[in-house]
TrEMBL record:
It comes from Nonomuraea helvata. This is HTH cro/C1-type domain-containing protein. It comes from the Bacteria.
Length: 378
């Protein structure tokens, strides 16, 4: 039976008792959502945003920690923010502040893990603000409507439509809390008699309009995916050097040179970009290579700008008749669906084709405005 909450209890004592009630209801129902609804039936004064937290048996500080875990610790939310959201949800005029739509998306992931932190219950962000929807910012109301409409009309084969219709949490130990999408195959340009199929994954962005930060774990996973593609291209790929475009590309080139290409020489291409042109910085490094060398060129992302074409022309000027392979961590798509059916659905497809690479390797697809490497490597 639920524990009685005394009117004379302190707010902290009341919170602890309500969290115990919520957890008891979860044990009875096996569902965070059902436990939250049951708690609100017993205590109508509790807003749904708060009830879901109690259904997980979490304090505000613990809820903030769970939130940060759900973002792969790319945020540093505190219990005061959870308190501000719940204060706003209790309809105190002028008190607290509403959560943004993107914050609601993270909260449903955090609370969907349940009291034990291991569940994966599908909760709608609309459930968290059921009684306070009209007090959200207009743009967040619109986002919530579109999200709900997308979920209700989702394809039957994809029950978890989520942020980008494909988002899920990767459960392997090496990628705990990193949000990635599903694997899919894509046919890309490759060498004669080589395997053109690449196994990619998507990088759904739960905060549209903002760069998607990559953790070191996800960055390493992308490099492992590139190595897997290189090994399975159908022919042995040997290169005389790995070149990295800017610092993020240099890190990629260093890993690939060490793990896949027997610690071959490493080149560094530092690009100075302005609105109208790209220039190679004198700090760039061009190692001595044999005639007509084979080169692996590494870049963190490919969007609209023809950086890759400019760099390729520069390499061929310095190393005539060079054969150039291209490895990129993230390739931007033209449409919202990241699981593209054709290489030409990538914004940089024309750029990569024009560069006439020996073969192309792509770890993942991404949406605008793009992705950010760890420690903001450039």
């Amino acid at each position: 039976m639920p524990t009685h909450v005394g009117a004379g209890d302190s707010p902290q004592a009341q919170g602890r008792k309500l969290a115990r009630i919520g957890r008891d209801l979860w044990q009875q129902t096996g569902s965070v959502k059902k436990a939250a609804l049951g708690l609100m039936d017993l205590h109508p004064e509790i807003p749904s945003l708060q009830a879901f937290r109690y259904a997980c048996g979490l304090s505000q500080v613990q809820a903030a920690e769970r939130y940060n875990e759900a973002t792969g610790h790319q945020t540093s939310l505190g219990g005061t923010t959870i308190n501000a959201w719940e204060t706003w949800a209790r309809e105190r005029r002028g008190a607290g502040s509403p959560p943004t739509f993107s914050s609601l998306l993270i909260l449903v992931t955090a609370y969907g893990r349940g009291p034990l932190g291991v569940a994966n219950e599908d909760i709608s962000p609309g459930d968290l603000v059921a009684e306070a929807y009209e007090r959200l910012a207009p743009e967040d109301q619109l986002s919530l409507k579109q999200f709900t409409a997308a979920n209700s009309s989702g394809r039957p084969s994809e029950p978890h439509t989520g942020v980008d219709a494909l988002a899920r949490t990767w459960k392997s130990p090496a990628l705990q809390d990193n949000i990635i999408g599903r694997d899919f195959n894509l046919t890309v340009p490759t060498m004669e008699h080589g395997n053109p199929e690449r196994s990619l994954y998507t990088l759904p962005n739960h905060r549209p309009g903002l760069l998607l930060n990559q953790t070191w774990s996800s960055f390493g996973y992308g490099i492992e995916r590139l190595i897997q593609q290189i090994k399975n291209v159908g022919r042995r790929v040997d290169v005389d050097a790995c070149f990295g475009i800017n610092e993020a590309g240099l890190v990629m080139a260093t890993f690939l040179a060490s793990a896949q290409f027997g610690r071959c020489p490493i080149g560094y291409l530092k690009c100075n970009k302005s609105r109208d042109f790209i220039a190679i910085d004198p700090a760039s490094i061009f190692p001595n290579l044999p005639e007509a060398p084979s080169i692996m060129l590494c870049d963190f992302e490919v969007k609209h700008a023809d950086v890759v074409g400019f760099i390729t022309r520069e390499i061929r000027t310095r190393y005539p008749s060079a054969e150039i392979y291209f490895a990129v961590f993230g390739a931007m798509t033209k449409e919202r669906d990241l699981e593209v059916e054709s290489f030409d659905n990538l914004t940089g497809a024309g750029i990569m084709r024009a560069a006439d690479f020996k073969a192309v390797f792509i770890a993942a697809t991404m949406s605008p405005p793009g992705i950010e490497p760890p420690l903001e490597l450039r």
